[in-house]
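pasting for the record
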Amino acid sequence: MSKESNIEDHNENNFSKLVEQGLKQGGIHVCASKNHGKTRLLFSMAKELQNGKARVLIFDGSETWLYAYDRIPVFTVQERDIVLVEDVKTIEEIERYQIKNWNLVKFALDNYADILFRLKTRKPSKRGFFVRTVINYLDQQQRTERESRPDHEARRYFAYFIEEAQDCFNSRSTTRLEAEEFLTVFNEARNQKEAFFTASQRLTDFSKTIRTKQMYCLGKPSTEDTNPVRRIEKQHKIDFSKMESRLWFMEGETFESPDWKQNGKPFQINKEIKRKYIDNLPKPKKGKNAIRRLLEFMFSSGTYNQRPREPQPETEHDITYGEDTFEQEDDEYHEEVW
């Protein structure tokens, strides 16, 4: 299909409205064959929403965003950061993970509005677990905020961008018990002002449970997706096999994705987050080591058998100052013990 389509092309203003519509409707799923321009289109959508319209959280394992997207804080998640809770015993337990540095992840989320999570693990189960955990955490914050506000509306939108979404959510992973909380969050996302912007090369690779609740943005499909898009082709008289690069079909219209120009570069924040997190931890009292604190506890709880002190002859100093003298003697005694 040529750009001179009977369906009106979009200009930049229409592209902006299109992205905002996706934000309010719960998200957009971008699907096209390799090299059609999926990632660059997601770049433009994320940049559009970063301009004060939403809080943008990006999950990427391909590292394309790390090298080609605009300036944004990057939190790297290593393979060793996601581990099994316990030894695997059954198939049902195979995806029961925990995030070892979850306190640092939460600290990053609380201190940066927009974050690019660089997922270095190659295991789809670990990627899916991390994405679900972060989204469930932020969703709970949205719900808590709605409860506390007089109008019961969250103040801002959340936009989750998931590159190669089939690696996080395929048909098998979304049928497991571990994903049931996330599916509830996803189904109610629009009411919580949350939207999912995802991409995959084939519709059939990505979970049907998720993508059918998003707006489709389609380019030239792979041969495996002929049947799923055939109904759309007949309805709008479009031949997707002839779609040119960077040309997309969405909501009954075609548009060309904007030209992408990188502005700044993503930057790592792991070391900075760790340093800030340690600086915010409660400080121990100065001048007290572990042995001193233990002895103080033993004295205060009565578990330490104090040695008896021999009675001292009463002096004029004792009579004059009374209680002050006893306190002074106690101090001297403690100093002797330390």
